[in-house]
Amino acid sequence: MFTFLCNHMQYATNRGNLRSAITIFPQRVAGRGDFRIWNPQLIRYAGYRQPDGTVLGDPSNVEITELCIQHGWAPPYGRFDVLPLLLQAADEGPEIFPLPPELVLEVSIVHPTLEWFKDLDLRWHGLPAVASMLLEIGGLEFTAAPFNGWYLSTEIAMRNFCDPHRYNILQEVAQHMDLDTRKTSSLWKDKAAVEINIAVLHSFQVAKVTIVDHHAATESFMKHLENELRVRGGCPGDWIWLVPPISGSLTPIFHQEIANYQLSPSFRYQPDAWKVYTSKETTVTRKKTFKEVAKGQRCKCFQDTYEKHMLQGLPWHVLCMDEYDVVSLEHETLVLVVTSTFGNGDPPENGASFAQALMEMSCPYFGAPEPEQLKSYKMRFNSLSQSDPLVTAWKTQRKASSNTDSAGALGTLRFSVFGLGSRAYPHFCAFGHAVDTRLEELGGERILPMGEGDELCAQEEMFRTWAMNVFKAACDTFCVGDDVEAAAKEVFRTRCSWKRQRYRLSVQASSPDLLTGLTQLHKRKVFPCSMLSVHNLQSPESSRATILVSLDTAGQQELRYQPGDHVGIYPANQPELVEELMEYIEDPPPVNESVAVEILEAPANGPKRCWMLDERLPPCTVHQALTFFLDITTPPSPQFLQLLATLAKEPAEKARLQQLSQDARLYEEWKWFRCPTMVEVLEEFPSVSLPASLLLTQLPLLQPRYYSVSSAPNAHLGQIQLTVAVLSYRSQGESSQERSWGVGEKCMPWGAAWGGNRAWEERLPWRCVGREWPSVPAVLGPLPAHGSPYRRTGPPALRCLLHVALPAAARHDGARLCPGVSTWGCGVGAG
């Protein structure tokens, strides 16, 4: 019980940014003793009865203080001594547990203008956690269910400091203010009470501890009351408790008639635990320290599986963006966003509604967006970044705000974002960055900096690293579990962390065809296209190459497209590169033999380890996997180099590989200087002994290359035409005679040799013009790779494009066309 209560206090205190929380212990069961917390609150100050009848400390806690002393507590006899907890488990006697000082956040009370106020030596704890009430839910009674919110300033200033049966400092403050306390008509009580309230609010604000004044609290309750009346037709309440003890008639709730009746679930008062407890033993239970209890809890944690133990504490719900009710965002405690970016920094199709809803949510410092802003929300959303002037201004105002100010629409939200994208395209992870910035702008607290996953460079590893770090951050933030570091390593242990003795190849009787294999591998529908022609659009003397590729769709309905769409081409690695890599494999299976990878591990339903099929790749030959499924041209990741280091026989090569895998700066220099393929890495480190299972499990997948469609469906029926700039480059490590090639462009001439490239289409709306062309002037500006077709076709290009892109009705009904302008350009030099 004590461990859970300590976790509750740590989570709720949150370094002063208090969070509402509740901890519920087992319910009351007939024939069994109750779980009880004898203290009325988790944090209370002791009250010591003096021989003259006065009380040192808090008079309301004299009885619980004496009980703590009887159970072995050694009191320091001060004015603000934090009481230990008296806890009672089922069928056991109460035990005493001193609270660790680091769990108790206290605020010294000072006044902004009255210097002498600090001499009163007042302080109060920041966390109000009611501990002794009974929670009833559906007939079940939970006798120990401590809960907390945050303080109303009048609770401390008026009730705790000014009540006659509490600290009763009112007259002392009035005398320091030189007020006439002999007659009530001087209103000395009112004047002193106001200054005490000012001091409490000021002190909590300076200490950055959450607190709310009585005016803001009553206005918030009135909104809650209106909502309850609208939704449920009523709302019970105790008028005496709801009206603040100062300036009551100045608050709207003073004039509100409220009926007090009981609903379920509800909190109810119950008899004090010591008044109903019957002792079963005469000996006094020895008090336990926090270290003793924590050690026992840690041992229990090691008995359970970390993954099960930790994930039970963090109930995840995974939803697609368009399935999520954005209204719930204001009530969430933790949200993790994993999103990709499309087009010009736009959200994916299923994230458009989520993006718009985020933009429509009002920022606490800028108010609700104007209608014109909502119309152009995409432009504004995509421009959001940490350097945005609006974000900078917001951060400045947020720092200057007090804890009584609104924290924003998402003030209680903790979040982290992971962006998916490809550095081959502009606006890398732009939508992810926009979401990350917008959530912070709305008041959310980022528990981990945004992660990025590059589709062309170890995206899965980057995501796994981010997921492990965000898991640890969430556990620390919400005080879940013990030994989070070890737990995170266990939960996110890489399933495919390669070891020679754990992996083997098994021969398979059959294997799917290439089209089925690509579909299974990428979880996307893949459709075959035959290559009709490949034409070089540059002159023979040109040092550059731009090719026009024509693909035959064979009338497949799934490959119908509109102007502005793009297709993804699944490339093949160069055959000579594959053959070279095959020569480095130490245990290659027969060339035409289909194989699958098996892993030695324990199944979920039993402790005995056995060989289980790895489903990452479909059954295929090693040659087919290296040609069509795996990326052998991208420089290996540091993790892959670490694996190669374990296989290197030469000490110098092993040391070099380990250095590259551990030194990020050195790795980046090596990567960008050499841009090595897998074959070139093995040439640099020839002592590496390369098993086939390592390549099949650790190499990244060969990703599709995206191309804009440069044809129009009406002009080229059943065809997809692509205009491709062939990428060739020379890395700094290559001689003037050597050149490297882009995978997608270099593979295109080879497509016919293996039966045609496999393509799948993904629709994107045309950003510039569309079916409104008859009434909208158009300016067409082709990208650099698309300029050559204009050069070859001449001025008729614009007329042809207008003809094929316009709807038939616009062409034949005599519709007047607005002017259109086509622009194109070419580089300076040969060709």
Summed up, what is this model?
The chain is of the alpha+beta class.
Write the layout of secondary structure elements.
Layout: H1 2-13, E1 21-22, E2 36-37, E3 47-49, E4 55-57, H2 62-70, E5 85-88, E6 95-97, E7 106-108, E8 123-125, E9 129-130, E10 134-137, E11 140-142, E12 147-148, E13 151-152, H3 153-162, H4 170-176, H5 188-206, E14 211-212, H6 214-232, H7 239-242, E15 266-268, H8 273-276, H9 290-303, H10 306-313, E16 334-340, H11 352-360, H12 371-375, H13 377-382, H14 389-400, E17 414-421, H15 430-441, E18 445-446, E19 451-454, H16 459-478, H17 484-491, E20 503-507, H18 514-522, E21 527-528, E22 530-536, E23 546-552, E24 566-570, H19 575-584, E25 595-601, E26 610-613, H20 622-629, H21 638-647, H22 651-662, H23 664-674, H24 678-684, H25 692-698, E27 705-708, E28 719-725, E29 728-729, E30 740-741, H26 743-747, E31 758-762, E32 778-780, H27 787-793, H28 796-805, H29 808-812, E33 820-822
